[in-house]
Amino acid sequence: MSALLEVRNVTKRFGGVVANANISLGVERGEIAGLIGPNGSGKSTLFGCIAGAHAVDEGDILFEGAPIKHLRTATIARLGLIRTYQQTRIYGAMSCMENMAISAREAQGGLLSLLRPVPPATSRRAADLLAFVGLHEKREEKAARLSFGQQKLLEFAMALMNEPKLLLLDEPTAGINPTLINGLIDRLRRANSELGVTLLVIEHNMRVIMNLAHRITCLAHGQVLAEGTPDEVRDDARVLDAYLGVA
Amino acid sequence: MLDNLSLLVEFPAITLDVVLNGLLIGAIFALAAYGMALVWGVLNIVNVVQGELVVLGGYITFVAVQYGLHPLLGLPLSAAIMYGVGWLIYRGVIFRVVDRDIFISILATFGLSILIQQLANLVFGAEVRSVDAALGSVHFLDGMVTLANVKLLAFLLAIGAGAALWLFLRKARLGQAIRATAQNPRAARILGIDTDRVFAATYGLNAALCGAAGSLAVMAWTIHPYMGLPYTIRSFMVVVVAGVGNVGGVVAAGLGLGALENVAGFVLGVEFQIAFVFALMVLILVWRNLRAARQRSHLE
Amino acid sequence: MSRLSDWHIAALLALTGIAGPLLLPALVTQFAFLWLMIVFAVTWDILGGRMGYNSFGNIVFFGIGCYAAAVIQRDMGLPYFEGLALGLVVGTGLAVLAAALLGSALLGIRGHYFAIATLGLTVASGEIAAGWNYVGAGSGMALPLYPGALGERELFFSYSLFAVAACCFLLCRWLYSTRFGLALNAIRDDHDKADAMGLRTTPIKIFAWCIAAFFLALSGGLAANMIGFIDPRDVAFAGATFGVWMVLMAILGGKGTLWGPVLGAVVFHITQEIFWTWLLGWQRVALGALIVIIVVFFPQGIMGWWAERRARREAA
């Protein structure tokens, strides 16, 4: 296994607030990595730094061995690194199928390649992926009319449509009906094993992340607090303290 | 064009005259810009009709002087009447666009601006108007520098109005309610502030500030029906540069713009002065966006 | 609207375009202006309705088209039609170039800052043209006389503008059926998301503006010749009339829909003609009031209203 993503000593400040302090972590090709930590511990900020939404103050970020910290979001996405958002972002006035079609890898091409209708193969793949996340019946519905949980699933399907090498998922189960969560965990696993997508997942639901991730990093106060297998992290006293606020 | 530039370099006194006169006019820009910052911050709308409010304020003083009022008394009169006009505009149109997409407010106020400008053209005619405040001028450096006293007065009044506004927002009940509403309208409503009344008062206050600015403009400079939009754009530019909640910054940026514009008018020729104002605004927005892009963000 | 009524509207418009000027010769100029208004509304909607970039600056490309034609026809010493043709080629070329350059500077700006920046662009362009002696400064430019017989001139420009409007509409219709159209919608719905999904948003946005610029400049060159005279602020860079009208027409019809801008242009043009006939002297005031009323009370447009009504009826 080789490191797909390497975060080296990254620091990000917003004014006087240090959101990420000297964070280092790595994601191996093919694994499912977890990122946990109490609210405000800097998880989403780190996602923003990796995916190109924030300027990184110090440190380096390598994707497949090449530095990406100065690249723009779109360039990073075209390298095969896609993120989803905590608040869920989809194209509200477009139908689910349109959302999927414009998320396909071919849509990242130049202008000339865009001046064609959506190829039938893309539409088929879009329909299959919508079926995969359980939105097939809703495929002609406007995305804004879906429930929050359904939008979350659509955003996940859009990301898969893009065939990323690495997918950063920001709280994929937040807002999802609890009875559907097991199914979602299963889909995340299948995306990883069958579609070969490496995952880095922020998750608040401990049961989910302990079941899903091969390896977990815990942040607190913008710093890496602990790192290891789910069992190691669960048994780490500092992690407990961070969550219960004893420290 | 280059002749005028070399003139500025060779004769510092001329430069001084151009810059000082510009600074004094800039006080009027600052006054209108306070109003725009207030409305922008509190109602979250970009008020494109701002300039027409200034022009209307000018016409009120102009008409009052025709009827024998002393020009200086035109200032409070313009401000008072414009407060009422502002309140009416709020009740008629603005309150319907406050919570909507900001482009709707831009377009609606643009429509108002066209409406008022055409109305002014019909009622007052297309002539350039001004009022002689009969206050004389001061000269120094052997008459190379001439400053009309009315401009000095306009300058002092604009600064004074700014200070009064600052005090009002901090000390008065209504001022505090305005600030609370600006920070968080929903929280303000929950705490029992009638935000609709605060919005109306804010818009009225803005119109009064514009009225005062217009009154000073007609005394220190000129007005005509179609000069509203430049005032809007000046105000917008000043607020963008200074930031919405920054009274001191608005004064500084307003004065700076006045000086810059006067120098540009002198060097490029007066016929390009308005083009300069609008082009400068575009350049400022482009520049700010480029700076934001370097921070991996954008101007929004 | 169903496919059938789509074709009905298209057939009706085509018939009006071809037969209208012959059947109602008194209204030829009105028809010509109607096609011009349709070009305005449809091109505005490419950015405003489909891409979410509300521009007050599109009229600049129309102005470039006007002036380019006038200068070429004045200075090249060509016969009328050759001069006009060259003028249109140069005008569209310059306008597309301007759209590409201005677009790379301005299209990074978002939301209402973009709207105000483009407003500034329009006024600055008008003021520069009004101060520039080479293009006649404040007194504008006169265009050469049409060489044909009396009455033929209006017919010629009415048909040319109809052809431009039809091409513009058909091209846009095709564009919106491609992935490019979806990309425009994606930028409108969530620009950050479109970036994060790796879309090449900057070239997409610039290309969209270039298309609008092309048709605006083409109609500008023709309109200038039809009117016979260019005023920098009231014809070429007329921000407070044409510049706002194009926004208004698209909104009135329903922005972001295929037929909305066309419909809006037709309704607006007729309304405006009624104002001109009946509200002598007050028509400009009335137009200002109309803008306010439409924007405040009818922002969803005719197409939006129609869709709402149908949805309500289906629900009932």
Give me the secondary-structure topology:
The complex is a heterotrimer of chains A (247), B (300) and C (316).
Chain A: E1 3-14, E2 17-28, E3 32-36, H1 43-51, E4 58-63, E5 66-67, H2 73-79, E6 81-83, H3 96-101, H4 111-114, H5 120-133, H6 148-161, E7 166-170, H7 178-193, E8 198-202, H8 206-212, E9 215-220, E10 223-228, H9 230-234, H10 237-244
Parallel strand pairs in A: 3-8, 3-9, 6-7, 7-8
Antiparallel strand pairs in A: 1-2, 1-4, 4-5, 9-10
Chain B: H1 2-10, H2 12-43, H3 50-66, H4 71-97, H5 102-124, E1 137-140, E2 145-148, H6 149-171, H7 173-183, H8 185-190, H9 195-220, H10 228-242, H11 247-268, H12 273-294
Antiparallel strand pairs in B: 1-2
Chain C: H1 3-23, H2 28-48, H3 59-75, H4 80-106, H5 111-131, E1 141-142, H6 152-176, H7 179-189, H8 191-196, H9 201-227, E2 229-230, H10 232-236, H11 239-253, H12 260-278, H13 283-297, H14 301-315
Antiparallel strand pairs in C: 1-2
Helix pairs in contact in C: 1-2, 1-6, 2-6, 2-9, 2-11, 2-12, 3-4, 3-9, 4-9, 6-9, 7-9, 11-12, 11-14
Summarize the structure.
The complex is a heterotrimer of chains A (247), B (300) and C (316). Chain A is an alpha/beta fold. Helices cover 36% and strands 25% of the residues of chain A.
Mind explaining what this structure looks like?
The complex is a heterotrimer of chains A (247), B (300) and C (316). Chain A is an alpha/beta fold and 247 residues long. Chain A has a single domain, classed as Rossmann fold, CATH 3.40.50.300. Helices cover 36% and strands 25% of the residues of chain A. In chain A, the strands form two sheets. A six-stranded mixed beta sheet of chain A has the order 6-7-8-3-9-10, sandwiched between helices. In chain A, strands 2-1-4-5 form a four-stranded antiparallel beta sheet, with helices on one face. In chain A, helix 5 packs across helix 6. Chain B has 300 residues and is mainly α. Chain B has twelve helices and two strands, in the order H-H-H-H-H-E-E-H-H-H-H-H-H-H. In chain B, strand 1 (137-140) and strand 2 form a beta hairpin. In chain B, helix 1 (2-10) packs across helix 2, helix 2 (12-43) packs parallel to helix 6 and helix 10 packs parallel to helix 12 (273-294). The longest helix of chain B is centred in the N-terminal third of the chain and has 32 residues, at 12-43. The model of chain C has no long low-confidence stretch (mean pLDDT 91). Chain C has one domain (3-315). The two termini of chain C are 20 Å apart.
